[in-house]
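Propose amino acids for all 194 sites.
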C-alpha cells in the first residue's frame, strides 16, 4: 500500500479527483486529498486560472506543503501525485522531499531547478498535443528531470484534451483515461515493491 498525496487541478477538488482517489483506494492505497482552494470549484479553466493567479502560486505551494507535513512521519515515504496545476505542485514537493517514494503527474509539470537532485521514479501522462505542456517544454522538462537523477516515463495520448481523465470536462477521452489509470496503477505497484 502506498501513501499518496493527490493534488487537484486549477478547477478545484472536483468529483473526478474524488473518483480518482476512490480508484486508487480500491487498489489498496491510502490517499490524502487536500483542498487547496478552500471549497471553491470552477466550471472553466479560465475561472480556475484566474483564481490561481489571485491566490498566487507561492500560497498554493505553501498550502500543499502544509497538507503534506502531517503525513511526513518517520519511515513514511509519500507518492506525490496531481492533476495539471496539482501535478506542478506535486513535482515541487517531491523534489524537495528526500524521502519521496515516487511522483505521478497527470496532465501537468513544473520547472526543474538546476540544483534539483532525486532518484525517484516519475511517471507523466499528458495529451499530445497539449496547449499547457508544449513539445518544447516537455522535452526540456524531461532532460532536466533526467539530469536531476529521476527515472522518468512519459506517456502521451494523441488527440486527447488537456484534462482527459475528467469525465465532466470537454477534454475527456474515455479510452485515454482508462489507459492512464491502468498504466498508473501498474507504476504504483512497481514503486511499492521497490
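Proposal:
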Amino acid at each position: 500500500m502506498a501513501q499518496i498525496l493527490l493534488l487537484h487541478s486549477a478547477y478545484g477538488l472536483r468529483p473526478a479527483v474524488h473518483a480518482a482517489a476512490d480508484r486508487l483506494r480500491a487498489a489498496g492505497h491510502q490517499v490524502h486529498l487536500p483542498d487547496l482552494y478552500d471549497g471553491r470549484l470552477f466550471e472553466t479553466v479560465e475561472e480556475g486560472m484566474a483564481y490561481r493567479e489571485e491566490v498566487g502560486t507561492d500560497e498554493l505551494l505553501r498550502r500543499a506543503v502544509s497538507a503534506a507535513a502531517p503525513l511526513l512521519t518517520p519511515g513514511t515515504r509519500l507518492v506525490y501525485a496531481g492533476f495539471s496545476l496539482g501535478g506542478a505542485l506535486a513535482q515541487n514537493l517531491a523534489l524537495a522531499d528526500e524521502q519521496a517514494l515516487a511522483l505521478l503527474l497527470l496532465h501537468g509539470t513544473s520547472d526543474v531547478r538546476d540544483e534539483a537532485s532525486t532518484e525517484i521514479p516519475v511517471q507523466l501522462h499528458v495529451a499530445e498535443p497539449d496547449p499547457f505542456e508544449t513539445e518544447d517544454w516537455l522535452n526540456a522538462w524531461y532532460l532536466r528531470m533526467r539530469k536531476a537523477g529521476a527515472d522518468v516515463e512519459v506517456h502521451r495520448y494523441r488527440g486527447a484534451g488537456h484534462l482527459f481523465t475528467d469525465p465532466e470536462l470537454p477534454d475527456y477521452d474515455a479510452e485515454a483515461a482508462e489507459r492512464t489509470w491502468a498504466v498508473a496503477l501498474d507504476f504504483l505497484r512497481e514503486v511499492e515493491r521497490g
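The chain has one domain: 3-193. The chain is about 40% helix and 20% strand.
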